[in-house]
Amino acid sequence: MRGDADLFDLAGEVVLVTGGGGILGTRFAEALARQGARVAVVDRDRDRAQTAAELASGGGAREVRAYQADVSEAVSLRTLRQAVERDLGAVSVLVNNAATKTEHFFEPFETFPLKDWQEVLAVNTTGAMLACQEFGPEMAKRRRGSIINILSIYGIVAPDQRIYEGAVYEGRPINTPAVYSVSKAALLGLTRYLATYWATQGVRVNAITPGGVFSGQNETFVERYSARVPMGRMARADELCGALIFLASSASSYVTGQNIVVDGGLTVW
Fold it and tell me: Would you state the CATH architecture of domain 5-161+177-212+237-261?
């Protein structure tokens, strides 16, 4: 019988992280590798994936590889699976973390372009579905696997529009567009559906819902957002890693169809 500490050990697991070059993806890859997993860092931008993989590898001490793929394209994902299986082995944990912003991402709802709407859904929601189609059946055949979908608080509650007055990120005004909320809410539905679909085949499907993560937003936004949070601050990217390791490991062997909300209490109020 394994000890309690061993429950979180990921040695022998092959974990694939989409959106691996982003703020959360980079932290996820490093945390997973530190727990002993072989990690495939996947991003549409090859250079971002490579940078994240080098950081996660700890100077080459851990087995981490970078891959370029577009999750909105089934052919790209099939090629990706073949490459990862050749290099690292069969994927046992899939982290659907990829999300995108488009040219007109911050446009008001009334004028939000259909093209941008479709592009965001293609990555945030359809991309996760396609990745589940590509990697889930192989897990089911082996009768073991964990799929973790990364959501957002704005997939389970509506954004407070007041906190965006004067909010700036990377030099431009920001908001949370309707398409982002819709894409993440849909992903929660997919999580629950697949949790029951593959439950008897040893594949667990769960979600993590992060609250707002600080990544350089201006002081006005940080203050207004933090005032909405019982803990009084935004999250750090590394604070999502505990929930991730739990769901990736045997510590959560009897957990499926769940959504772990890591938001400092924002959705409690």
Answer: 3-Layer(aba) Sandwich (3.40)
For the stretch 81-136, pLDDT in tens is 999 999 999 999 999 999 999 999 999 999 999 999 999 999 999 999 999 999 99
Q: Which helix (H) or strand (E) covers residue 38, if one does?
A: strand 38-43
Residue 165's Cβ-count burial label (10 Å; 0-12, 13-18, 19+) is: exposed
CB-based burial of residue 218 (10 Å sphere; 0-12 exposed, 13-18 middle, 19+ buried)? middle
- Counting runs of H as helices and runs of E as strands, what totals does the chain give? 8, 9
d(CA 152, CA 157): 9
Q: Where are the domains of the chain?
A: 5-161+177-212+237-261
**Helix H segments across the chain?**
23-34, 46-56, 74-87, 114-121, 127-142, 178-197, 219-227, 241-248
Q: Is the dihedral of CA 212, 213, 215, 219 positive or negative?
A: positive
Q: What sign for the dihedral angle of Cα 32, 151, 26, 196?
A: positive
Angle between helices 74-87 and 127-142 (to 10 degrees): 40
Whether this model's pTM surpasses 0.90: yes
Query: 22, 56, 19: which is closest to 237 by C-alpha?
Result: 22
165-203 confidence digits (pLDDT tens): 999 998 899 999 999 999 999 999 999 999 999 999 999
User: What is each CA distance from 107 to 150, 152, 155, 156, 176, in whole angstroms?
Assistant: 24, 19, 19, 22, 10
- Tokens 């996820």: give the residue: 28
Q: How far apart are the first and last CA of the chain?
A: 41
Catalytic hit among 180, 193, 197, 254: 180
Active site residue 180: yes
